[in-house]
Design brief:
Largest sheet: 4 strands, antiparallel
Number of helices: 10
Structural class: alpha+beta
Radius of gyration: 32 Å
Shape: rod-shaped
Helix content: over 70%
Strand content: 5-15%
């Protein structure tokens, strides 16, 4: 007996029979999956390329949405609501009151003396009476809450006037909402296209193996033994498409990182990791789902 055969027999003796049977089944399922992919031929390239293309579009939009959120948060934090107090109001007391307003993150006090001193340095207007009011600079926790915070501050007695970049805040929030909506629509498109592509592919495989599958069914082969290789075939297409999509996505990532560096805005933490994880999960899940739908429709098992 050859050394190779001796090792094989020794390994078999140490594996319980039920486990050995499961390993054989798994091996056969794996071989059937590979056989199905080989049978599809050059169509495999078109399928994987199409999957990679739609996943790249989604991944680029998804990753960009993280960067856009970082820019909005950064700019939103720079937006301050300037609250001008009436002459009789103590700024320290008013600061404590406004801290109780919902969504207020921070308050800094600029007394009228400090403001007048700064203006004198810039314009040299000494000798005039100080007409400036005490001012509170209010920062909110989220740019989307600026309008709500302003409305609540207006209700507080002792406020003479207030101002903030209202139009800019609204535009930034609108851009974010539009971008998130587009990303959501692209996600739906990715799901639909993935399922359609894989569905059509598995349908071709089923048609090409129709006689073989019928023989397997007459021999009493388990339905799941017929289904699983087809489902795995679809999942492999999704996985390979996701792998290829990482190449252009890496270019997008590098470009966004440079953009963050140029504007000195910290990128979203773990953004790319989240995008890659979602792409792989979606690609495999949607592709496997497409296979299952095709099996249910064209293969009565």
């Amino acid at each position: 007996m050859s050394k190779k055969r001796l090792i094989k027999e020794t390994v078999k003796k140490h594996i319980p029979q039920r486990h050995l049977s499961s390993i054989r089944i798994m091996y056969r399922i794996g071989m059937e999956t590979i056989y199905g992919i080989k049978r599809t031929g050059l169509i495999n390239i078109a399928i994987i390329a199409a999957m990679a293309a739609i996943l790249t579009i989604f991944g680029a939009l998804f990753r960009t949405s993280f960067s856009l959120s970082s820019f909005v948060d950064k700019l939103g934090n720079e937006f301050e609501i300037s609250v001008y107090l009436k002459p009789s109001v103590d700024p320290v007391y008013m600061s404590q009151r406004l801290k109780e307003v919902e969504h207020v993150k921070n308050i800094s006090i600029i007394t009228k003396e400090e403001a007048w001193s700064q203006m004198n340095k810039e314009l040299d207007i000494s000798g005039l009476d100080n007409p400036l009011p005490d001012t509170l600079h209010v920062t909110v926790d989220d740019p989307a809450n600026i309008v709500a915070v302003c409305d609540n501050i207006k209700k507080v007695n002792g406020i003479q006037d207030m101002s903030y970049a209202q139009e800019m805040a609204k535009k930034l929030q609108t851009v974010t909402n539009v971008f998130n909506t587009v990303t959501a629509f692209v996600l739906i498109a990715v799901a639909i296209l993935s399922i359609i592509i894989i569905n059509c592919t598995i349908q071709l495989v089923i048609q090409s193996r129709k006689d073989e599958i019928e023989i397997m069914r007459l021999m009493g082969v388990s339905n799941w033994y017929i289904k699983i290789p087809l489902i795995l075939q679809g999942a492999i297409y999704g996985f390979l498409g996701a792998v290829i999509s990482l190449v252009p996505l890496n270019t997008v990532q590098n470009g966004l990182i440079r953009l963050h560096g140029f504007f000195n805005v910290a990128p979203a933490e773990f953004a790319m990791n989240i995008v890659v994880f979602c792409i792989f999960i979606m690609a495999i899940f949607f592709s496997a789902s497409g296979s299952m739908l095709s099996i249910k429709k064209h293969l009565q098992v």
